[in-house]
Recover the amino acids of this structure.
């Protein structure tokens, strides 16, 4: 494998000169990127320590980190480990890493390397670009601030005299780099040292700076603030975003699984030969984390028997009902009292009894979220629908806006939340405009229009974007004062309160390049997936992958003879990907895009080694399988399946450590 390492240790003579007159060094070394990934240590750190010790210098400690240029990760790893008494920090890395450490530490920071061998590749850190790859590093002289990048004119001998109020005369939005350099050197007591330096001239022939600059800018072009990480896959919403909802034709038979939620499957309360009506209870809740199941049609129960589940596979107990086509409502389907008259406990009971679960795909029983046991500041509605292709929630917002607002108000009352927020990505301007109009009468509800970014709809990302709060590892949204729900869930709560209707149908997007007639449909739970595909003209291709849900987190459909369930927001037909997996090249892109701030390549490697202790230290259990790492992986490694295996491997140890 070609080693695209971006630094080499300075010569012994240069290092001896650098160490002269200084002592008490802490050494930070970056494990090189763009090379074969292994767990062996880089040699440079040991070489530098040997030279320092030969000069009688004291090393207060060392740290060897991956991707030093990743400030979010580096700041965490260096926190509290630099010992007291450290007077100087020596960094072994490329210019990006040196500046990252210099920005974090308060003592003088020096580079022990020369960044001489840039060859058209560059660290993929998606933080602010701080290295111009000039191969003539000035960081030791300028306190770890690069004059080539930070100075608009790339001056190397001091400021031009044109700065005003600390801002550059060319770019008034940019701080003067040389004022920042002087301020840092003054803080470190190094101004005299700087003034005694000989003038350095820049040799533009050393490297093709423009090529590297263009490469880096392209790699970072789609970076967006709001939450750490994330990716920007092609949206592909154009197939169905403009298509109004249609009611899917009545199915002849429905197969309704008793496990359409996280937790214990419901227990059947009907048997073959029973007559049932729309909204009638057919499966009762079997535990605290569970949900009841209701009939989506009126007709006759044909069987209560195991059938194939779209997510869980074969053998899931289900109720098979022959539809009589009459849609006769059950006597229990009657409107409740007005929202103003309902107590919080009554709202929670309705949500529980009507079988409402999270309809964004997770299917967690919603009533449990509405009993957080701690103060809640805000209820957040996820209208981002950040998965490519899917437009079900978009159409729900356009066609059931009043119901969404009603459902949100009900949840706010249930948890005594003073604020409600609906987040909608800016690729849905029509939904933003309509929802802003609908919430205008309510002072305590607002719309948050956010720049499109995957996986913005994940609970912890949504909270960070809307509330600026980070949910700690192992904690829940309620721990930071938030409850998060989906737009379709809010609509279902409205139906439950205003109509008395349980969750018996949902909107499904049927879309993708290989669906003949894409559309958005209101579909009764238990409807056969193959019937839906046939209604949409079938599949128009051979090398096609079918998924239930979006392309990122959706599950492949291996058997189309399965039913629509409460979490089925889409059926997509997309091109199969036959890219072959290759060895990890340690480019670091997966670390930069992981929204949970994990290190997927390390998790992958230590899972291969079976090192569960290290996996837990890497917070492997925080992964929620968003597939950002897999999407961006240069080597096309199926990281999510490997991380899920690592979670399974680590779960028994975590349970043991937590006393379970």
């Amino acid at each position: 494998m070609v080693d695209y390492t971006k630094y080499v240790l300075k010569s012994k003579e240069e290092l001896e000169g650098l160490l002269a007159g200084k002592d008490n060094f802490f050494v930070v070394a970056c494990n090189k990127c763009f090379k074969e990934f292994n767990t062996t240590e880089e040699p440079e750190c040991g070489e530098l320590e040997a030279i320092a010790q030969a000069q009688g210098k004291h090393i207060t400690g060392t740290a060897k980190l991956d991707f030093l240029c990743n400030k979010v990760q580096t700041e965490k790893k260096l926190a509290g480990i630099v010992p007291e008494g450290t007077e100087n920090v020596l960094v072994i890395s490329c210019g990006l890493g040196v500046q990252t450490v210099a920005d974090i530490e308060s003592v003088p920071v020096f580079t022990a390397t020369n960044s001489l061998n840039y060859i058209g590749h560059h660290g993929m850190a998606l933080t602010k670009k701080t290295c111009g790859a000039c191969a003539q590093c000035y960081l030791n002289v300028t306190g770890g601030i690069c004059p080539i990048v930070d100075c608009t004119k790339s001056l190397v001998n001091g400021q031009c005299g044109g700065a005003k109020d600390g801002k550059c005369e060319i770019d008034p939005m940019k701080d003067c780099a040389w004022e920042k350099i002087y301020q840092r050197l003054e803080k470190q007591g190094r101004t005299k040292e700087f003034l005694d330096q000989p003038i350095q001239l820049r040799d533009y022939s050393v490297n093709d700076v423009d090529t590297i600059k263009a490469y880096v800018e392209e790699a970072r072009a789609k970076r967006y603030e709001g939450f750490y990480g994330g990716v920007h896959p092609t949206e592909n919403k154009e197939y169905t975003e403009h298509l109004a909802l249609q009611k899917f034709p009545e199915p002849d038979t429905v197969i309704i699984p008793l496990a359409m939620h996280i937790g214990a499957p419901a227990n059947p309360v009907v048997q073959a030969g029973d007559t049932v009506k729309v909204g009638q209870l057919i499966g009762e809740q079997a535990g605290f984390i569970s949900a009841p199941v209701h009939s989506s049609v009126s007709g006759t129960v044909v069987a209560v028997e195991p059938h194939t589940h779209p997510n869980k596979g074969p053998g899931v107990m289900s109720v098979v009902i022959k539809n009589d086509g009459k849609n006769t409502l059950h006597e229990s389907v009657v409107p409740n009292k007005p929202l103003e008259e309902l107590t919080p406990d009554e709202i929670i009971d309705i949500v529980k009894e009507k079988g409402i679960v999270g309809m964004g795909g997770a299917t967690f029983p919603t009533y449990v979220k509405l009993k957080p046991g701690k103060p809640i500041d805000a209820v957040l509605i996820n209208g981002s629908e950040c998965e490519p292709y899917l437009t079900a929630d978009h159409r729900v917002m356009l066609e059931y806006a009043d119901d969404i607002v009603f459902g949100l108000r009900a949840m706010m009352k249930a948890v005594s939340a003073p604020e409600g927020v609906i987040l909608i990505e800016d690729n849905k301007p029509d939904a933003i405009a309509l929802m802003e109009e609908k919430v205008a009468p309510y002072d305590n509800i607002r719309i948050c229009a956010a720049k499109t970014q995957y996986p913005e709809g994940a609970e912890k990302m949504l909270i960070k974007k809307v509330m600026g709060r980070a949910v700690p590892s192992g904690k829940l949204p309620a721990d930071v004062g938030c409850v998060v729900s989906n737009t379709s869930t809010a609509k279902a709560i409205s139906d439950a309160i205003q109509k008395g209707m349980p969750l018996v149908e949902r909107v499904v997007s049927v879309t993708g390049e290989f669906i003949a007639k894409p559309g958005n449909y209101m579909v009764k739970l238990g409807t056969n997936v193959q019937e839906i595909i046939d209604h949409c003209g079938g599949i128009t291709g051979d090398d096609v992958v079918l998924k239930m849900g979006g392309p990122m987190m959706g599950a492949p459909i291996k058997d189309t003879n399965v039913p629509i369930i409460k979490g089925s927001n889409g059926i997509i037909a997309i091109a199969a990907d036959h890219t072959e997996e290759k060895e990890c090249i340690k480019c670091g892109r997966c670390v930069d895009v992981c929204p949970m701030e994990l290190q997927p390549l390390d998790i992958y490697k230590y899972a291969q080694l079976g090192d569960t202790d290290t996996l837990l230290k890497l917070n492997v259990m925080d992964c929620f399988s968003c597939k950002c790492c897999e999407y961006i992986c240069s080597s096309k490694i199926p990281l999510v399946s490997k991380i899920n295996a690592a979670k399974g491997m680590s779960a028994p140890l975590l349970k043991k450590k937590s006393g379970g």
Observations:
- Residues 612 and 650 are 5 Å apart (CA to CA).
- The chain is about 30% helix and 20% strand.
- The longest strand covers residues 299-309.
- The longest helix spans residues 639-657.
